[in-house]
Every structure is written in structure tokens, then in C-alpha cells.
Amino acid sequence: MEKINIICVDDQPEVLDSVLRDLRPLNSCFRLEGVESASECRELLEEFDQDGELTGLIISDHVMPGGSGVELLGGIAKDDRFAGTRKILLTGQATHADTIQAVNDAHIDNYLEKPWDPAVLLATARKLLTRFIMDKGIDHMPYMSCLDQATLLDYLRRN
């Protein structure tokens, strides 16, 4: 079973704790990591890459000291080592221009506004992680309890 990580980035500890709590059902299949800055996220990505681990999903706030979420996700999108890593921008402070940049430059997979609905966040994460696993050609069976069944069925029907 591949080691697949989820990184959550938010400079507000209470918000970060809430995101991690909402994603806790995924703990049985994926490792959840929380960091408070874009630089910490980049360091963690480097560490995972050096250890041969995959990062399936990054959920990032936008407005943070030391670098915005759009800048962070845009840099990740341009790094071939993280091709296929799914990205969610979770914010309440992005402007229309920020959102356009996130879609065009950071190639985000989803945008959720704060405050978010925990069920929507979890369902979105499941769908994106299912796509990540199927697109990478990873054996999906060990992850079945955490995957989105409708997305999985769609992939299996098409192949």
C-alpha cells in the first residue's frame, strides 16, 4: 500500500484543527498533516518526496503571512514531482482576481469558502483522492473505505 499524504495549510491554528478534524475519517487510509505556512508546506512536500511518499491532496488557505495559498499551489502545480496532486483552496478572503489566478495558474481542483460545510469538505476530499489514486494507477483496493464510490465506479466503467 502506497503511503499517501494529505497536507492542510492554514495560519490560524483553530481553523487548521477544524479542517483536520473534518477530514479525520480519512485517517484510516491517508496520513493527515497540518502546517501553518506555505514554507512549512513546501518543506513537508520535500520531505515526503525524498522519502518516496506521495502527496495526494493539499488544502490551503489563501491569505497567510509569508506567501499566499495561490502562490503556494501555483508553485506546486509547476513542479513535475507533484503532477497529479489535487489542490483545494479553502478561503474566505480571496478576491475575484485571486480566484481566477488560482484556477488558471495554480490549477486548483476545487474552491471552498470559509466557513465551509464539513460534509462538503470531506466529500470533496474523497472525490479528489479517488481521482488521484485512479489517475496514478495505484491499486485502489486498500483505500476502498476512504474513496468516493461514485467517482470510483465512473473510472472503472470508463476503463
From TrEMBL:
Source organism superkingdom: Bacteria
Residues carrying 4-aspartylphosphate: D61
Occurrences of domain Response regulatory (ranges): 5-129
Pfam family, one: Response_reg
One GO BP: phosphorelay signal transduction system
This protein's UniProt keywords: Phosphoprotein
Protein name: Response regulator receiver protein
Originating species: Akkermansia muciniphila (strain ATCC BAA-835 / DSM 22959 / JCM 33894 / BCRC 81048 / CCUG 64013 / CIP 107961 / Muc)
